[in-house]
Amino acid sequence: MRLQGKVALITGGTSGIGRAMVELFAREGALVTLTGRARAAGRAIGEAIATSGGEARFVPLDVRRLDELRQVIAATAERHGRLDVQVNNAGAVLPKSLLETSEDEFDLIFDTNVKPVFFGTRWAAEIMLRQGGGSIVNTASTSGLRGQRERAAYCGSKGAVIQITRAAALDLAAYQVRVNCVSPGAIDTPLLRAARFGAQANQDELVAQVGRGLPLGRIGSPTDIALAALYLASDESEWVTGTNIVVDGGGTA
Ligand code: NAP
After folding, report:
1. Nearest CA to 90 among 141, 139, 46, 135?
2. Dihedrals φ, ψ of 52, to 5°?
3. Whose CA is nearest to atom 21 of ligand 1?
């Protein structure tokens, strides 16, 4: 098993990509703590994993409450005596153009997508450097690499995640704390469906259409991203830091 005995904390583990990471990491032997605001979903994921012999403990958390994020990171490390992997995955999208975006909406996107990544990286690293190393994985986006219509604040927030990842990797390399990110392209999750198709009917067909427009001919699954995060979380990537793995079916090629 690729994460046998590793202690991993995954934010935004209640849905979509984060949920797939929680399930995969637990199958690979990690002792997982997952967070999110959706309590029923979080508990159900933890229980299902326990039934199949894994460990995934749900802790309710709104990542915009930075003091609580810091507390959950500390409590996870205290419970297990260490923290090996921190995945800063929680995120939200705002499907609005520059001209439609208010200051409050901008703040919501940066408070959700950027500040918890910056401080989650810092606070996890403070624990990891004392134990001699660790791996931090941030969920960025191909929207952080190129412009996209009707996503001005979101593109800015994900560009920030990629740059924070690179700079943090340099600050932390001497301590063997690695910091990397994954940039998903179009992945079939509730976030993508809500942002692209709103309340439209026939969403499965719309999703399939997006997939047909990509070089590899299908939309991504949450597991496609979880597999990249697994590589970055595991010791297989021990000589990899400051990088951004693009997983997008060839979309940005
Ligand atoms: P999703 O299914 O909507 O999941 C989003 C996750 O983030 C949920 O677990 C949600 O938990 C959590 N979250 C959002 N706001 C939060 C908050 N304030 N506090 C705590 N948790 C919060 O979306 P997804 O597609 O899997 O997105 C996961 C990540 O991938 C995001 O960072 C997103 O930007 C990125 N991404 C997605 C795509 C895509 O095509 N789907 C592409 C590129 C990047 P609760 O609802 O329980 O709070």
Report:
1. 139
2. -95, 15
3. 36
Q: What is the pLDDT of residues 228-239, one digit of tens each?
A: 999 999 999 999
Cβ of residue 128 lying under 6 Å from some atom of ligand 1: no
- What residue owns the CA closest to ligand 1's atom 19? 62
Other C-beta atoms closer than 10 Å to the C-beta of 39 total 12
What band does 11 get if pLDDT is binned at 50, 70 and 90? Answer: very high
34 Cβ contact list (under 8 Å, min separation 6) = 9, 10, 11, 13, 14, 18, 19, 22, 42, 45, 46, 56, 57, 58, 59
Q: Percent helix, strand, coil in the chain (nearest 5)?
A: 50, 15, 30
Of residues 15, 154, 177, 248, which has the active-site annotation?
154
Residue type, 230: L
Average predicted confidence (pLDDT) for the chain: 98
- Ligand 1 pocket test, candidate residues 17, 138, 146, most atoms within 8 A of CB: 17
CB 191 within 8 A of CB 92: yes
230/188 Cα distance (integer angstroms) = 19
Q: How confident is the model at residue 27 (pLDDT cuts 50, 70, 90)?
A: very high
pTM score of the predicted model: 0.99
Q: 27: which 2 tokens?
A: 């199958």
**Strands (E) located in the chain:** 7-10, 31-36, 55-60, 85-88, 134-139, 177-184, 244-247
Is-catalytic flag, 175?
no
Q: In 3D, which of 47, 17, 55 has the Cα closest to residue 227?
A: 17
